[in-house]
Give the backbone structure.
Amino acid sequence: MSIDLMEKLRAFDTPTVCNALEIVDPGRRAVGFTTRPFVTAFPAMAPVVGYAKTAVIRARERPKADPAEVRAMRLRYYEYVAAPPAPSVVVIEDRDPEPGYGAFWGEVNTALHKGLGVLGCITSGSIRDLDLIATDFQLLAGSVAPSHAGCMSRMSTWRSRYTACGSGRATCCTPTGTGPWSSPPTLWRRC
């Protein structure tokens, strides 16, 4: 998907994109969008559109790996996030039995990811530090929580249970929800 097309897509909210996809491909009518309420850091912010960089987290228990292995895994994650394609939106699935137990996203990770060229994040987990997060970095999350607990990310190419995006596909993040925007370019040319 071209940067020009991504910029054009920013003009639309998620329900509008879902409406267009339902007309072009009726099979998309019941798949590929969020169905649970989300909280957003910046409700008035314009939509962000980027290539999905996917990961999974768990916060309930601290990682069992030794500190050197944890550090190496974290560095691989940041290298993955910073690598092309860009611009990107990080999409993280919280795999704890109770998603949102610990927040990966707050003051530090929003600033770090913004520095890596990430436009925002979509997560089934939680966010924190709402008064300290990086400006112009959109967060769409399942909840707000006070602690990061034992939060640790793992790079993955999982297929999300709450959006139809996978790693490297275009996705959107708007205060009205998320949408796949991961259709083949031929579908977009027909819109």
Remarks:
- The helical segments are 3-9, 14-24, 67-82, 107-115, 185-190.
- Residues 157-170, 179-191 have pLDDT under 50 and may be disordered.
- The first strand starts at residue 39 and ends at 40.
